[in-house]
Structures are given as structure tokens and as C-alpha cells.
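C-alpha cells please, single chain.
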Amino acid sequence: MPLEFEKAWSDLNAELQQLEQGAGLPAALHALEAHQRQTGFIEGTIDQLERYTLYHPDDPTRYFLAQYNPRRALRFAGSGSREARSPSHENGCFLCRENIQWQQQGTQLGYRIETRERAYFALMNPFPLLPAHVVMAATGHVPQDWRFKEDTGLDVAMLLEDLVQLGDRLPGHLGFYNGVNAGATIPGHLHYQFFRRPEDQGPFPLEAAAAKMAERKVAPVIVQDYPLDAAIWKGEAQNIVARASDWIALWAERNRSRLDGLAANFITSRNVEDDDVTLYFVPRDRAKPRAARFSNLVGGIEVLGEFVLSNPEDKAGLDEGGIDYFTLEAALASVRAPIEID
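Here you go.
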């Protein structure tokens, strides 16, 4: 790679590492976001989005969220200029560091983050869907799929170890893993996504539904009154990883006959007020990557209860009442895969 790019990457990482050591990972990512806006890599802002809350007509404690985001489709093309081409690594994968310099002409830089066993590059999303939207991409070109689909896939314990560990270091943020055909747009490269919890908003609909459930310490809570099945663990990070990994391994054995047809979304969050981490496991049907009525993939943000819509027809539906609480409830229900634990 050109020396100029390597020096810029190295200098930025040294600065962010020092900041993280003093003020934590959220501060380092905030500085990375500011840097990427200055270089022009981040082309959109959440201020450009129009957000809606759609309530159940008879129960205001039940609601879904929607945002109109016409720039969403641009994320498949990435950001920046690609007039200067060079040999591509892994078919030009947007998340491989070997491709970033020539694809983005130096405007995109990332921050290397170490977990206990592995490393990731924090890369800002050029078209953010929520505040401080960042992709945590594995430093190697590791596939996104989980091992229940094929032997070469990800070990679920490893997947959860890194997702929860990163989430524990990011209080006030939510993070998620999208499985293949469960919202992943780059299935060939392992990545998680994180964003900062919006300051002017209460819990996401899935969180609100989970809060109504009695807290249990041993077995996971299975959420009710929500169109998707979800198992939920809450507690200290490492304890959650062990409990969830063991439970999902047993669940997989009991559901072996249908595992090839399943994917998953995992979502994690840590509150600013305490040290507890929450983990959600939402099984997904691989044959249903998109919700009824909508063309966009359903990933972690939609599973949380916020639909990202980009078509002018959807905007008209939101403004004129053609899209309401029941529309989004039915859309989520259309991609449901039952947990089936009995």
C-alpha cells in the first residue's frame, strides 16, 4: 500500500488508541467519526432522515419506529471515487483493508480494535442509519455465516464472545450481528455493526417488549407480545456468553432437522447506568430475507423494531397513513422463525 496511506492510518490509530486508553472506546469512535466526516468519507447525516413512531391505536406502550432514508440504497456502492483502479483482494470486498485505499482514494481510514483472541477494524458507515454508525470488520476475510449452516462457518461461541465483549466496551450503544439472509449485505466477511443510542428516543420496540417480561437469571427469557421470537439474557458479559452459548448449542441439537434453513440476528447493548449487558438471539428463516410488502433486507435494526425505508412510495405511505403499526407488525411477523424449545 502507498506509504502516505500507511502513515495516515498509523498516525490516526496512535491518536485514537491514546484517546481510548484515557476516555474509553466510545470517545475513540466519536473521534473516528469526526475524522471521517472531515475527509468526506461520511456522506450522509442522520439529520437528513425523517423518523416516525407508529403506535398501536389501543395501547400506546406498543409501537414501531420507521425512518425514511432515500440514501440507503447507496450503501451497496460504498463511498468515494473509484476512478483509480488496482488489483482487488477477495473480489474487491469493501471490508478488506487491502482494498480500502484504492477504493476510497485515501478518504477512508479505520481503527484497529483488539478483543481477547481476535482483532477488528472499526470502519464508519458512509451512509449512517443511526448515530455513530460503525462497522466492526474482522481483520481477516472470514465468512459471516454461522457453523450451523456449514462446517467452515463461524463458531457461535466465538461470534458471541466478540460481539458481547465489544458491546461491553461501548456503554450507551447497541450492536448486532446479521446472519446470511438475515440482513447481512457482505456475507463473505465477518462484521458486526454498532450505533449510539439516539438521545431523544426511548427503548426500541423489542427492548420495550422485553422489559415487560419478568427477569430470570438461569434460563433465557423468551419475549412475548412481539412479532418475532427472541431469547434474551441479561447480566455480566462473560457470564452471558457462557450461558447463551451453552443454551444455543442445546437448542441447535434439538432443532438439527431444520438448522440448514435457519440464520440469526444477535443484538447486544450495555446501559450507561450499570454494568449489565443484554443479549438477544432471534432465529431467522433463510428463505425470508425480506419482509412482506417491503423490498429492503430485514437486519438487526428492523428486528429491534425500526424499519429503514427508502422508496418514495413508502414515504407517501408513512405520511398518508398507508403504513401504520399493523403494517410493520405484519412485516416483521412475515420473517418470523419460531424458536421451538420444547
